[in-house]
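Lab channel / #folding
Pinned by the channel admin:
"Please post every new chain as: sequence first, then the structure tokens as a reply. Keep commentary short and put observations after the output so the thread stays searchable."

First post following the new format, from NK:
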Amino acid sequence: MPELPEVHALASDLTARLRGRTLDRLDIVAVAALKTFDPPVSALAGPVVGGVARHGKFLDFAVGDLHLVMHLARAGWIRWREAPPVQTGRSGKGPLAARLVLDDGSGFDVTEAGTKKSLAIYVVRSPTDVPGIARLGPDPLAAGFTCDTLAGILHAAGRAQIKGVLRNQSIIAGIGNAYSDEILHAARMSPFKPAAMSAEEAARLFDAMQATLREAIARADGLAASELKKEKKSGLRVHGRTGEACPVCGDTVRQVIFADSTLQYCPTCQTGGKPLADRVLSRLLK
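Reply from TO:
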């Protein structure tokens, strides 16, 4: 799933490609992906694209007076095309969900792999008309997001597990499964540690969050969309690396499997050398 660093890089890359260009049309292939009806998609035909912004994991395309907002969900992606699309006569088949076409025929395809379709597209007058954006918590890279901000969030979350708090978009925007694993590894904290913690621990978590996200953005800076997935995977230390050696201490990276996702961690770095029980209500083994 694209998270804050990848969506940030996508917004930067697409702004460079689209700003000042005239949008010819947006073709919706997967009808279920379109979540709005007013304004109609046809209203996007003709205006100039002003740029692309990021709200948490949402992409926000300013098109004239309207906003085209996309959430790529777990398996969505954007593939740029320099030339007009080739018509295959198989509309509705395969991973293609939508196609944006500029006045010269270039543009991009929005695709979604797999059978579980969660990609969402909105045409709105304001980004806050999208319920998911309206519910977003503060952005962890915003100037006003300080260590005190995080400490207040953690205190309010109380006994909730820190992994879930970091992933909750209404609490902190933009962090998902992968980067929550990476942040907790850098902070040397168990994913099941209660959110309410000491001031020293909150400061350590804040520093790990800032360093992890900013380093990921720096690695992705200037990369095209086609390169971002590979770059993300290469930069992860524990997430997706079950069975490999921890790059910090050399212990074996382990995982906990949930109903619809997994998390990875290093026992030596994060749980005092004790493995976590691999079940939904995991706790440290006695």
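NK: Confidence is low (pLDDT under 50) at residues 280-286.
TO: also worth noting, The chain is about 30% helix and 20% strand.
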